[in-house]
Amino acid sequence: MPEASQAGVQDTGAVPMDAIAALIEARFAPEDAREAMEFVKAYYAAGLDELPAGGPRRLAGAALGHLAFARRRAAGETLVDVFNPDIDRHGWQSRNSVVMVTTDDRPFLVDSTVAALNQMGLALHGLIHPILTVRRDADGRYLGLGGAGDEAAGPGGRAVPESFMLIEVTRRPDAAALDQVRRRLIEVLDDVAAAVTGWQAMRDEIDRAIADVESLPDAVLSEDLRSEHAAFLRWIRDDNFTFLGFQDCRFSEADGQGQRRVEVLRTLGVMEGTGGDDGRERPRGLAGFTLHGDESFGDEPVTITKSRFRATVHRAVPMDYIGVKIYGPDGRVEGERLFLGLFTSAAYHSNPRAIPLIRR
């Protein structure tokens, strides 16, 4: 009889490796069996406490299925599959739907994925997240585990930490529903990659904004206010704000009707490519806006508010919006640096009397 998933989770972290090894040795040639066992041992190294209960066949099928799915992965590629395991097709089965992810290891992967699944109404029934150093050749083909540096993978290859996520969720009965989950997770994980990749560049933009605020003439902003606004920007830079997106905008000269167009010069993180039209609603910031006259979003250089867009990275809550005006030599507002992200838990636990701008 095929093994079915049982209710509950494993009552022990012990992995039945001897039984799994017997299954693998009966199925594979010796060299392939050694590779398979190396992967299975690493895959379950942290134990089984967060997985639904199941026997050796189920555990072997899940791990080896993940290895087969991740056999080839281009540099930077994110692989996502969502399916209902079937004993004939996959070698194991579950009463749940299964999410498999393989991608470069980076922050925010698990919490962003879980938040997206919860938003889709999918309850979690199990999750493991091994991070394995994988050797791949120049074409992204799997060579094995371990190795120090890309030289371990040969010419043109790579050896980098990869994140493997196996998540069991509320069962979705049909292929269309499963594909909808898969496509949404790809969007979310692409946003995670964009935010993490753009993080340092966004911090550099905050440093530019600080320098610009500090250089404002007294005619635009008093010395006390310059100091306070610059101090706030330093405060968010110092681990009180998770930078997720950025947009650098410039305002054109007014036309005959007194309207000024917004030109987007640079985008980073989740706002990268916001000028495109891929059918997905994205936080566009000021892209496409038209300003009327000298409209400048308030008199002070820094604006703090909430965006209407929920974060796809880290926490599924409305993102915080921090705008820093860009002034011309004549003191007129010429543009804005727009930062989207989330105030950190450290920020929320800070004494308001110690937070620049808020303490005024």
From TrEMBL:
Sequence ranges assigned to domain NAD-glutamate dehydrogenase N-terminal ACT1 in this UniProt record? 39-185
The cross-references to Pfam families, in alphabetical order and at most eight, read: GDH_ACT1
GO BP term, pick one: L-glutamate catabolic process
The family database entries (InterPro entries) matched by this protein are listed as: NAD_Glu_DH_bac (IPR007780), NAD_Glu_DH_N_ACT1 (IPR024727)
| GO MF term list | glutamate dehydrogenase (NAD+) activity; L-aspartate:2-oxoglutarate aminotransferase activity
> Which domain of life, per UniProt?
Bacteria
User: Signal peptide span per the entry?
Assistant: none
**The protein's name:** NAD-glutamate dehydrogenase
